[in-house]
Amino acid sequence: MTSHLSATDAAVSTAALELHYGVTPVLKGIDISLSKGKTLALLGPSGCGKTTLLRLVAGLLAPTKGSVAIAGQVVADAATGSFAPPEKRNLGMVFQDYALWPHLTVGGNVSFPLEMRGIGRAERQSRTMRALERVGLAAYADRRPSDLSGGQQQRVAIARAIVAEPQLILFDEPLSNLDRELRENMVGELAELIATLGLTAIYVTHDHSEALTLADDVAVMRGGLIEQLASPDELVERPASPEVADFLRLGGIADLEYRDGLWFFKGSDVALLRDAGRAGAASRVLIPIASITPGEIAPGRLAATVLRSQFRGDGHLATVSLAGLAKVELQLLSRVKLRPGDGIGLSIDPDQLRWFGNKVHSSKEENLEHA
User: Fold this and answer.
1) How many other CB atoms are found less than 10 A from the CB of residue 28?
2) In whole angstroms, how far apart are CA 222 and each of 29, 46, 48, 276?
3) 322, 273 Cβ separation under 8 angstroms
4) Could you tell me if 163 and 86 are in contact, meaning their C-beta atoms sit under 8 angstroms apart?
């Protein structure tokens, strides 16, 4: 995502894009600009507007306000009433359910867009096989979609989307119908395929791990707005708001208040860290998973109770609540399994905290363990 690109330089761009259903706004002024060969993920919960934005780019919906341009050509402009239908936008789409025709062979499914464009049989055959080769399915051209696995069907849908060599590919949650293990395998495979083919793509998902794996840039959406648009690394290192941090599951969010030289969890006598700042300051803070080290309950450590724990590849991800602060839940990684109800002590690295809001202080924070 390169927001400094002009509409004429961008592979796809939108300007002040809005969509209303009656008096209800669904999108509230979206500005994006995607350069050629890059992938933008639209990430957010159901109802945030990400699929609506994709449909506006695709030409399946017309904007209430604003405009859409593809490869420098305006394809929709609410001010002038201009609107190009999907077949005039030179794009491909991959849907949640793949939308493969069961009565056609794999080759027949892939060649269908070419047939609709009136391309001759010999060229259709050549381009169809080339597209299938690019997704590793040339040997399956004569099979039916029902003979293939879910991952193979997805690749057929991608081959059909790229067979006409469009300038833009739109993915609408293409992995959501796969089981978890296959979905995790396909994310990496799809990312490699997009990069190898040099595709320009917009990818809609509600899964943050998909977005962070696949995309060059991610637009985190909420309530019809883009909360933050940044690279995956920047999103993780510098989330713009508590809502972004919470949605990305980067750690626990807590409200703090400053009293008597200490930062306390709001409304409590539980102190997080020492600070020589000005009294009366308040802030929200992200306590990242990586900032917390579990250990025995001891002076200078925060006392916590394990609520639940689940294994993941790099250890056990535990959710804990702080003693006296049942509403504050934090997450941490442990090399050993922590059982619900276990009492543990927490050390928190203050240098890894991410502050939001009006934090006011004048000297370096210190973890209470070292105070």
Assistant:
1) 16
2) 13, 9, 5, 36
3) no
4) no
Token output for 193: 């395929």
**Contact (CB, 8 A) for 230 and 32:** no
Task: Supply 286's token pair.
Answer: 């992200």
Q: Which amino acid is at 42?
A: L
pLDDT digits (tens, 9 = 90+) for 10-59: 899 999 999 999 999 999 999 999 999 999 999 999 999 999 999 999 99
User: Could you tell me the strand order of the sheet in which 302-312 lies?
Assistant: 292-295, 343-348, 302-312, 315-322, 325-334
Compute the distance between CA of residue 235 and CA of residue 243 in angstroms, rounded to an integer.
12
Helices (H), the chain: 50-58, 106-116, 121-134, 150-162, 180-197, 208-214, 232-237, 242-247
313 neighbors 295 (Cβ within 8 angstroms): no
Q: What is the pLDDT of residues 288-332, one digit of tens each?
A: 999 999 999 999 899 999 999 998 877 899 999 999 898 899 999
- pTM for the whole structure: 0.85
The rounded distance, in Å, linking the Cα atoms of 148 and 249 is 35
CB 260 within 8 A of CB 362: no
Q: How many CA atoms lie within 13 A of 150 on its CB side?
A: 16
Q: How many helices (H) and strands (E) does the chain have?
A: 8, 22
Which position has the higher pLDDT, 351 or 357? 351
Report long-range pairs for 319-322 (Cβ below 8 Å, ≥24 apart).
320/344, 320/346, 322/265, 322/270, 322/346
Judged against a pLDDT cut of 70, whether residue 367 lies above it is answered with no
Angstrom distance (rounded) from CA 98 to CA 284: 42
Question: Can you say whether residue 90 is alpha, beta or left, with left for phi > 0 and alpha for psi between -120 and 50 degrees?
Answer: left
Here the tokens at position 280 are 């009366």
Nearest to 272 by CA among 162, 160, 348, 195: 348
Of 228, 204, 233, whose CA–CA distance to 216 is shortest?
Answer: 233
Residues 209, 131 contacting (CB under 8 angstroms): no
For residue 351, which amino acid is it? D
Q: Max CA-CA distance within the chain?
A: 81
User: In the 8-state DSSP scheme, what is residue 306?
Assistant: E
Cβ pair 350, 366 in contact under 8 A? yes
